[in-house]
Amino acid sequence: MGPVELNSSGAHPFNSTLETGIRALVVLEAFYPRRCDLLEMTWLDHLVVHTGDLDGQDVPESLHPDLPNRAGELLVRRQLVERSLLLMQQVHLVEVFETEDGIAFSATEDAPSYLDLLQAPYSLALKERAKWMADRFAGMQTAEMRALIAGRIGRWTADFRVEEMPARLPK
After folding, report:
1. Is the CB of residue 74 less than 8 Å from the CB of residue 158?
2. Residue 18 contacts by C-beta under 8 Å, 6 or more apart in sequence?
3. What is the share, in percent, of the chain residues with pLDDT greater than 90?
4. What are phi and psi of 107, to 5 degrees?
5. Total-model pTM
6. Please, what is the angle between helix 121-137 and helix 38-49, to 10°?
């Protein structure tokens, strides 16, 4: 693994809105045509880089190191994922839907062309893991996914309250 570049604020690029937006877009494209809500996107953003948190024989190795105390990541990650989805919406790569159950997100028809441009080894590994997750989770209802995630990576992941989510995202 080479040196880690820092963005202008000195933060690791993993924590930037753009990096998170690209991960979200990769996940949404893999899950297409399924629409995912903010809660699911927060979980999936964690799992796409920490696939090792899931059990099974065919589980790909995590892209990011398994650091202690990453339970708090999801508390911070939800707002970052929300901002990243809005960024991707502004550049017409993510579509936002208002449904009976709240806000849901989907990749747009322009997303595959953009994602095809991402050919760095990390990007290819990220796309492989997103496809693997989609094959495993796309047919599950949110409640099924919540139960699986709670059982695999702990209650802290599934304890987000849906009522804490915004009722409507700004356009």
Report:
1. no
2. 84, 87
3. 44
4. -70, 150
5. 0.79
6. 130
